[in-house]
TrEMBL record:
Family: Belongs to the CPA3 antiporters (TC 2.A.63) subunit F family.
Protein name, entry field: Monovalent cation/H+ antiporter complex subunit F
Subcellular localization(s) per the UniProt record: Cell membrane
Membrane-spanning segments: 26-45, 52-74
Length: 109
């Protein structure tokens, strides 16, 4: 229990100090995992199956929270436009790759 308490305190410190949303999300995930481990330890020590539904709900909340944060962060990255003037564009057909005007499928020679 001492190690779980130390892990929870370190996770709380990272939540408070984390410079990015990903640091805070991982810390919250660790905090949920510590709560699950603590509740599981309690249930095993006392041989009580009562906390098992709570463990199930906590694991579901942790999973859904992690996926939600990952999707939120993925959407924050600005999409590339695909416009020819956009130097970072990865859309379109590179030269010699068999585009619509390429009659021999990119084989020149």
């Amino acid at each position: 229990m001492v190690l779980l308490t130390a892990a929870a305190l370190l996770a709380l410190a990272r939540i408070a100090l984390g410079p990015s949303i990903l640091d805070r999300a991982i810390s919250l995930d660790v905090l949920v995992a510590v709560a699950i481990a603590g509740l599981g330890t309690f249930a095993a020590f006392h041989r009580d199956p009562g906390p098992l539904p709570i463990l199930l709900v906590l694991s579901l909340v942790g999973f859904v929270g992690s996926v939600s944060v990952a999707r939120f962060v993925a959407r924050r990255v600005p999409p590339r436009t695909g416009h020819p003037d956009d130097p970072g564009s990865t859309t379109g057909t590179p030269p010699g790759a068999g585009g619509p005007g390429d009659q021999d499928g990119g084989r020149h020679g």
